[in-house]
Amino acid sequence: MSRGKPEPMQAVKQRRDAALRALVEGVPYIQFLGVTVDRRGDELTAVLAFDEKLIGNPVLPAIHGGVTAAFLEVTAQIEVSWAMLWDDLETGQIDPRTLTQETLPRLPKTIDFTVDYLRSGLPRDAYARARVTRSGRRYATVFVEAWQDNRSRPFAQATVHFLMPTRDR
Amino acid sequence: MSGVDKAKIASQFIAYLPHAKALDMRIEEVGDGVAIISMPYSAKLVGDARTGVIHGGAVSALMDTCGGAAVMSHPDAPGGTATIDLRIDYMRAATPEQRITARAECHHITRNVAFVRAVAMDEDTARPVAMATGAFTVERPEGAKQ
């Protein structure tokens, strides 16, 4: 079996990073929270940069539960969108150079969201990773957890159900 | 502590939360285990740039705050609270440019757990935007008898 010459590394990186950027930067609320996304291959880690405005309880102080929920939901949404985008990106059906808010596929919509608070969010950066447990034509189920100092000691986790966007193609 | 004091404390506490301020939340009513808190529409909270619809995460933050305020204002609540879990059903997109109002009710409280139901609406109050159910901790002030 023969295969073509591998693409130059920079071309691969540029394509993937541009697509991810279009996805993340296109959502004002993600910018408001201050969430950025690190990528290693197709694995994503969302980072919530600590900021005073994210504080819920100023006495402890602790990150607002609503911020934690939003961070988890945003991470799950990016993960499921990214998984949806990945194949089209890698097969060349989507050209990231032309991706804009208008040409980016519609984002999946949250149907419901269940968050468990395991310990209080400390006033420092937080990280989250999501796993698409099941992704079908209409619905997707995503598990997501967030941690701060220790990966093995998550401070919150959530299960999210999404309604997948209708695909015209 | 009287119900009025409790409502006042809960209301002051919420006004003091940096994130509640960042979202410009406003207390409409709080007392007897019920809280009503609203939040204006803002371009920075948009989750879908094409439609201008607010992100579900911002609605979650409002529901969580409102749930906590409802617990704190319950006559049997001895002090503060923290969310144990929260489930939110998003029934429809909130209409852009409209204020979102959440109403949470602490419908049952035990020594350790408070149970909350909440609903979020925009100006069309006949069709809720989201509904939530949650469990919250019941925190006693330090030194208080268990």
Summarize, please.
The complex is a heterodimer of chains A (169) and B (146). Chain A is an alpha+beta fold. Chain A contains three helices and eight strands, in the order H-H-E-E-E-E-H-E-E-E-E.
Question: What descriptive keywords fit this protein?
Answer:
heterodimer; A: 169 residues; alpha+beta; Thiol Ester Dehydrase, Chain A; 6-stranded antiparallel sheet; two-stranded antiparallel ribbon; 3 helices; 8 strands; 29% helix; globular; B: 146 residues; 24% helix; elongated
What's the structural blueprint in terms of helices and strands?
The complex is a heterodimer of chains A (169) and B (146).
Chain A: H1 9-25, H2 28-33, E1 35-40, E2 43-48, E3 55-57, E4 62-63, H3 65-90, E5 109-117, E6 126-135, E7 139-147, E8 156-163
Antiparallel strand pairs in A: 1-2, 2-6, 3-4, 5-8, 6-7, 7-8
Helix pairs in contact in A: 1-3
Chain B: H1 3-15, H2 18-22, E1 26-31, E2 34-39, E3 46-48, E4 53-54, H3 56-72, E5 83-90, E6 100-109, E7 113-121, E8 130-137
Antiparallel strand pairs in B: 1-2, 2-6, 3-4, 5-8, 6-7, 7-8
Interface with most residues: A-B, 38 and 38 residues
Q: Total number of helical segments of chain A?
A: 3
Considering the protein shown, what is the CATH homologous superfamily of chain B?
Hotdog Thioesterase
- Total individual domains of chain B: 1
Q: Strands across the major sheet of chain A, in which order?
A: 1-2-6-7-8-5
Largest sheet of chain B: 6 strands, antiparallel
Task: Please state roughly what percent of the residues of chain A sit in beta strands, choosing from under 5%, 5-15%, 15-25%, 25-35%, 35-45% or over 45%.
Answer: 25-35%
User: Segments of chain A where pLDDT lies below 50 for 5+ residues?
Assistant: none
Oligomer: heterodimer
What's the rounded overall pLDDT mean of chain A? 91
CATH class of chain A: Alpha Beta
CATH class of chain B: Alpha Beta
Let me know the number of strands of chain A.
8
